[in-house]
């Protein structure tokens, strides 16, 4: 009776052991390339099988199914899809820098179109792939049994080309992965040549030759830090950008044309991604996307809208789509059958050592063959010198075996020599044939001497490696495709992605703020009622309005003399013209009880410019503008104020500038800025204009060439007065009359300096009505006149703020 024995095992230990076996199998036999030939097992088997079938570059194409069947049945029993997928990738011009398989038919596209079934496609070895297999029949590499021990397959290919770095590799194993970019063949050959001569060369020296990865899809590498890290450590981050050109069409519209994409980016998926971002309005300014690619090359056309800013659109595309991609280099390869992270120098050194071993083994094989041939030729020479005697010995022998033995005994020949003489055709007895044998023998002896000397001097084998790479470079080398931009790429900041745009920022008394594009408010004729610009609550009203660029700084001054800073784009854009906006306290920690009494647009903070600040009581202060270049989020003190005073206006001025100050009752004074001393940031001001107890300062502005003083009253009356009509006085006076105010006009609501032919005027009322009108429609009148109606108001409504904007601002920014 048969008995069975059960062996108890620890399940945890068994799982660990089984998983480790599986992991090593994946690492060694599937996912990682060998440092010597740069191939994974399935790729090596495909090339070897095709070579075995005689599919050279100059032979007819054969069906891919035939190749897959050969590989599957003899060497790689893991499914036909794994074999065909590997074969397809080696035939794709956009995957490998130099394709190893010459495919005929549909082998996929850069649009991620799948290849045709293997029964439809045909293939043969590319010419450069034959360099991978050269001398494989000369015992240059070890052969190992296949999966069922029925055949032998190479453990590595002789690889006359440095395929690992040339075509790169990628794969995910268990607990590790590899990602090696393709490189330029000529650069690699030069680096190998240099490394042979200078074995101690470091990364910097090798980078004189290997500039960086050279992707089959070209594109642009941004910066060298990632390349240097990858080559020095084996790991690095390389940023790649699409190559684009900007085309200007008739009418001023522009196109962005993409002609090269980062490595492994799907063109069709990219177009879909751009369309999706346009649809959700994450990227604005694009009107159409077209793929005009053909046999001549790639051409993905992005049509821009007429008012789009091409550089901002391009920045958004780089930031939000694969048009800018990162290739993470991780050079993990099999070295001696073990996974190892290698750098550039180690990878090239391993290849040189491998080629040294291959050429040594080839020389040993050829030396053995040469010695064997010389041995036979020596036998022929003996036979030809004693031909009559050889013939008698052979004729006197009863069997072939007797003849062989008799020859061996009579002439002291080896069995091989005797057999060769017996097999020698009679035509070799001719005199000329005898001379050929003598010549061949002399040539073989010369070859033996060369090979023995070669094997005795390893340095000479190094020169053979150099000759090989020089020949490879001359035959297959071509120009670099990928351009390397030596300037390091900076991370995109928010402002890099936001277009320059003129916007109107409005602020209500209760602190609600919003921005709208200037184009929201179309120009109307003078005296109109305007459009609703904001819906205000019963206890709220519009208080401030300013025209700014989205990239400029906006300084917010509180009534108590504190200043805060925001970028124009920091203020949320309102989709609706009548929206009330967002509370300002959500953007800056301002005390709304103090209120924002002035807003100022500042592009930058140069030290040769000054910030002028004026208060309700007519005080003025000058402080160097660069003192405000780093305003904390919590704000900084801009001006010291008395308890009964408040800051109402702020402007930027040069040292030689002139300022005009306007009071609520229509008084104005003009004086030179140089009359003001430069004060510290926290100090108070000095008297600029003397105002009566029932009067107060409304605004101030800076004089410029051919400007006019624009004053607008609470009830919508406005006029322009030539600045030349205001003589320069010393600061601190009461000023002169600039606007005749009455019950009909109301007091001065706002004042500024403007150019008659350069600016539009926007006025806003307490109830949120906004009108945009041309300054050219406002008449120039004397200082003591009451002006003309520029805005019609409802009962109880008043003008509260005005702002001007350059007509050509938007055109200049496009």
Describe the overall structure.
The chain contains 18 helices and 42 strands. The strands form 12 sheets. Strands 20, 21, 39, 40 and 42 form a 5-stranded mixed sheet that branches. A 4-stranded mixed sheet has the order 14-9-8-17. A 4-stranded antiparallel sheet has the order 10-11-13-12, with helices on one face. A hairpin with a 2-residue loop joins strand 15 and strand 16 (338-341). The protein has 814 residues and is an alpha+beta fold.
Task: Explain briefly what this protein structure is.
With 814 residues, this protein is of the alpha+beta class. The strands form twelve sheets. Strands 20, 21, 39, 40 and 42 form a five-stranded mixed sheet that branches. The chain has a four-stranded mixed sheet with strand order 14-9-8-17.
Q: How can the largest sheet be summarized?
A: 5 strands, mixed
CATH 4th-level superfamily of the largest domain = DNA gyrase/topoisomerase IV, subunit A, C-terminal
User: Helical region count?
Assistant: 18
Query: According to CATH, what is the class of the largest domain?
Result: Mainly Beta
The Rg value, from CA coordinates, equals 43 Å
Work out the oligomeric state of the chains in this entry: single chain
- Determine the structural class based on helices, strands and strand pairing: alpha+beta
CATH topology of the largest domain: Neuraminidase
Number of strands: 42
Which percent range describes the beta-strand content? 25-35%
- Any idea what the shape is? rod-shaped
Query: Which regions have little confidence, pLDDT < 50, spanning 5+ residues?
Result: 807-814
Shape-level CATH architecture of the largest domain: 6 Propeller
* Percentage of residues in helical conformation: 25-40%
Q: What is the total domain count?
A: 4
- Average the pLDDT over all residues and give the rounded result: 87
